Amino acid sequence: MSEPPFSSQTPPATTPPTVPPQSPSDPRPPNDLLVGRVTRGGSGPCFGLETDDGKQYALYSAESLSLKVGETIRVRTAPLHLKINCGPGEHLSAVTVSRVG
């Protein structure tokens, strides 16, 4: 006769941790994805973005696009290797930009 699919044995007892974990146990969104409101728009190549937590970004995009102040966008970013000043905030390269909503 074969064993039943589920065992009736009691699982081993576990002890609660004595210290908190060193790293988060929940998955986090990728660090290269930002969602926020456009604070400096126009036809580029520089744009301003503010996330919901109030962090400011100065984005450079090689794409041909036009963004309006106040619209919400999703941006996949990469380090900015060009020596260009796109305004106040953390300077990043906008790899892809898409409108939200």
From TrEMBL:
Low complexity: bias regions: 1-12
Segments of skewed composition (Pro residues): 13-30
Disordered as annotated region, ranges: 1-47
Name of this chain's protein: Uncharacterized protein
